[in-house]
Each structure stands twice: as structure tokens, then as C-alpha cells.
């Protein structure tokens, strides 16, 4: 368990209302590609980055509350949602560049990044590539901090994935998938915790172009063995960067043990576990999620990045390992992840 007591912070006062017009999808053309995004509110910038196969719509119910105290920007990553889906680079590094360029066109110089799943990996990569533009990190069931991932995603990374995904559009397949997920929910399995969201993923792949973008994105981060890139080897660079990890203890996509490994690898980070939640804790308990985000952003100061400090962190390198710590399963797993990290680096 986490070595800090659970905190349920008090909600901040509502400062302004958000009109429906602010929540509509907007578009900017960057490098010739149309990128969709939602933008609302006033105040410090808060960027919400969704996961693979998802879109900014996943944050829609949360944006009005967050926009009372922040300027909220929620993009549809390239290849997702209403953004263009070209035959392009869908690596986490390319996504981080895309987020930077979109923010630049919107006159946003720095922001707190909230990343879910793949979006968590993109947020970490953004902080690594552009630390001077990153104020805080909030990582929600984030990818890129461990090797394991749901076997279904590993299977979709294999040859023949296009054919596999195209069968989901056959008559009656959506009904069958829905029945299976409802059964998983009735049996109280971890997979069943995210049944509605997983069914939405089927709907998000209506045509060959969408399926191709999904597969290209997945293969950039996952192979038959599991997650193929990591930030664990560079997590020590978050020293001085306010970082909070939010995870469901019944996550069937990215296991909760990854949260503990990231918590140990990120100096000064904070870990909050959502009991009974799956891969989408911000859907399972939106009130707690909102309260944590608001409390964290209001009680921490933005990272004070300097070139000199960055140089010293790089020269010192990643702290050794779990040597000298108790010989527990969690510590052994964390050591193994760190050992494997150099093989799965995103750069």
C-alpha cells in the first residue's frame, strides 16, 4: 500500500460557469493536418491528454468543473477522434511534439499536463522534451512505466491486426462484444470495471483509416511482449517537478503495480489509489478526481526549471536501484523494470 495516508481534499469554490459553446470541438491546422481540440475556462493552463483509441470526449463531463479555475485544453491526438488520421509518425515523442505545437498556436507557453494511459506516456515525454514548458504532471493509469499490458493489446500489435479489428464491424459483433463485457462486469472481473469504455473503443474504429491509425499508434508503444517504450530510465529527471499518480487498483489494462514502481522512481511524487476502479478512475469517481486535481494544482508551485539543474541531474544519472531496501516482491519487480528500461527507451 501507499506509505502516505489517503487524502480526500476539499473542493475549491466554483469561480465561473462554462457555456456549452466553450465545450464544442474546435480545429487548428498544424503542419497541414487538422487537429481537433476543446478549450474552455480561464486561468493557469491544464492540458488533458486522452489514451489510445479515445478522444477529448472522455474528459467532457470533467471540463466544466476544471474550467472554473483553469484554461483547459483537451486535444484529440492525431489519428484519434475528429483529428486527421494520416499515414504518419504516431510515437509518443511525435505526440509530444504535436501537443507542443498545438499549445504554441494557442499562445500557451506552459501548462500542467494530465495524461491518461497512452496520454500519460505522452505527458511524461512532453516533460522530458520540454521541461521548461511543463508546470506539473498528473499521470492517470499511465503507460510507459512498466512492461505489462493487457494481452488483447499485445495481440492487436501482431500481423493480421487489421483483419482482426475489421471483424468488429461485422453485423452483430458489437452486440456480442457488449454481451461479453457485461458478463465480465456481472462476474466482477477487473476487465468488467471498464466495460462501457471498452465498448466505446469498438465504436471509435468505424473505418479502415481509423483502424490503421489505431494500429500504428499501438505498435509504436506495444509489441507481442508488452509495452515497448518506457520513461522509467528518466523518471529521476522529474525531481522538482510536482507529480501526482492516480490509479485504479483493479486496472486490467495497465496493472496497478506500475503505479508503485513509478512512485518510487519519481522523486517527491504523490500516489493516490482509487479502490475498486479500473483503467478509468476519473470516470469511476469523478468527484474525487476533480478534488485531487484542484487541490494539487492549487497547493503546489509550478516546476522551476533551470538549465543548470537539468545538467546536474543528467550528470548524476539515475539513482542506483533498490539495493539496501527490503527484499520484497514489489522491490524486486521495480528493480527488474529499471534493469529493462534501457532496452525500452522512448528515445
TrEMBL record:
GO terms for molecular function: hydrolase activity. Coiled coil: none annotated. Keywords: Hydrolase. Residues 333-347 have a biased composition (Basic and acidic residues). Residues 316-347 are annotated as: Disordered. Residues 44-286 form the AB hydrolase-1 domain. It comes from the Bacteria. InterPro entries: AB_hydrolase_1 (IPR000073), AB_hydrolase_fold (IPR029058), AB_hydrolase_sf (IPR050266). The lineage of its organism: Bacteria, Bacillati, Actinomycetota, Actinomycetes, Kitasatosporales. Transmembrane segments: none annotated. It holds the Pfam family Abhydrolase_1. The keyword Hydrolase applies. This is Alpha/beta fold hydrolase. It comes from Streptomyces lutosisoli. Residues 322-331 have a biased composition (Polar residues).
Amino acid at each position: 500500500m501507499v506509505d502516505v495516508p489517503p487524502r480526500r481534499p476539499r473542493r475549491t469554490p466554483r469561480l465561473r460557469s462554462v457555456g456549452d459553446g466553450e465545450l464544442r470541438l474546435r480545429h487548428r491546422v498544424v503542419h497541414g493536418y487538422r487537429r481537433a481540440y476543446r478549450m474552455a475556462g480561464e486561468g493557469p493552463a491544464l492540458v488533458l491528454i486522452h489514451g489510445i483509441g479515445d478522444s477529448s470526449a472522455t474528459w467532457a463531463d470533467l471540463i466544466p468543473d476544471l474550467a472554473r479555475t483553469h484554461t483547459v485544453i483537451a486535444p484529440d491526438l492525431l489519428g484519434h477522434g475528429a483529428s486527421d488520421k494520416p499515414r504518419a509518425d504516431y510515437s509518443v515523442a511525435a505526440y509530444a511534439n504535436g501537443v507542443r505545437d498545438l499549445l504554441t498556436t494557442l499562445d500557451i507557453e506552459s501548462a500542467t499536463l494530465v495524461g491518461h494511459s497512452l496520454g500519460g506516456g505522452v505527458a511524461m515525454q512532453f516533460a522530458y522534451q520540454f521541461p521548461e514548458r511543463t508546470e506539473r504532471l498528473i499521470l492517470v493509469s499511465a503507460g510507459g512505466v512498466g512492461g505489462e499490458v493487457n494481452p488483447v493489446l499485445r495481440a492487436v500489435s501482431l500481423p493480421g491486426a487489421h483483419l482482426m479489428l475489421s471483424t468488429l464491424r461485422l453485423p452483430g459483433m458489437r452486440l456480442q462484444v457488449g454481451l461479453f463485457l457485461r458478463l465480465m462486469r456481472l462476474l466482477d472481473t477487473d476487465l468488467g470495471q471498464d466495460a462501457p469504455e471498452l465498448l466505446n473503443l469498438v465504436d471509435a474504429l468505424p473505418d479502415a483509416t481509423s483502424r490503421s491509425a489505431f494500429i500504428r499508434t499501438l505498435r509504436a508503444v506495444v509489441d507481442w511482449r508488452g509495452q515497448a517504450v518506457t520513461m522509467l530510465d528518466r523518471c529521476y529527471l522529474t525531481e522538482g517537478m510536482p507529480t501526482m499518480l492516480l490509479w485504479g487498483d483493479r486496472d486490467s489494462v495497465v496493472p496497478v503495480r506500475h503505479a508503485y514502481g513509478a512512485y518510487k522512481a519519481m522523486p517527491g511524487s504523490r500516489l493516490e489509489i482509487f479502490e475498486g476502479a479500473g483503467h478509468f478512475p476519473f470516470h469511476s469517481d469523478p468527484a474525487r478526481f476533480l478534488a485531487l486535481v484542484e487541490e494539487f494544482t492549487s497547493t503546489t508551485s509550478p516546476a522551476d526549471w533551470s538549465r543548470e539543474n537539468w545538467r546536474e541531474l543528467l550528470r548524476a544519472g539515475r539513482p542506483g536501484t533498490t539495493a539496501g531496501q527490503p527484499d520484497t516482491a514489489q522491490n524486486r519487480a521495480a528493480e527488474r523494470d529499471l534493469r529493462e528500461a534501457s532496452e525500452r527507451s522512448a528515445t
